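DM from R.C. (forwarded with permission)

"hey, sorry to bug you on a friday — could you get me a structure for this? deadline for the figure draft is monday and I only need the backbone to look sensible"
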Amino acid sequence: MVSFTDDIVWYSMRQGDKRGTEVDFFDFTYDGLITNSFLQNGLGQLTDGEEGDTNFRLDPQELGIKGYEWVGWKNDTLIDPGPVSIVFKFDTVRNFSSVTLFCNNYFTKDVRVFKTAAIYGSVGGLYYWQKVDNYHCIRDTVVEYARKVQIKLGNMIARYVKVDLHFDAKWILISEVQFDSSEY
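My reply, with the result:
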């Protein structure tokens, strides 16, 4: 059963990418609009409470879909491709303490936790400001396990939160995004 938390009304982002012939890092359960590989105004795997296994080639739920718990994006350019951007809308204006992303770091398979994250807030969804400086993730070249990365938001007041993730390898894989917030 899919359940959604954190008072998130919807999130919007680019659909995940296909990895070869075996693994599709798509948001399979997304319930919003999907237009030209862009997901808009819905909820799906990033907020369903299910964390993916480090080895994304497994099918632990026996659904016939390897890597099902992961949504992933590929950097296949030689120059900076720009960030993976995810916009979250909440039920009301909230006071945000932190955001936690469950990320894969299977670096022998060209997957790493993002290099930097920029977090922006907005009250109306049109104009965004950056509350905290870019979060720089320390590269782990020893442990390949998937992990939670928590970013402190310093009591950011917003109804919309935009998360920009910058690549540190060929792939970024995210399984869950959770916010610590309270009503404002």
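R.C.: lifesaver. The chain has no helices and twelve strands.
me: no worries. The first strand starts at residue 8 and ends at 14.
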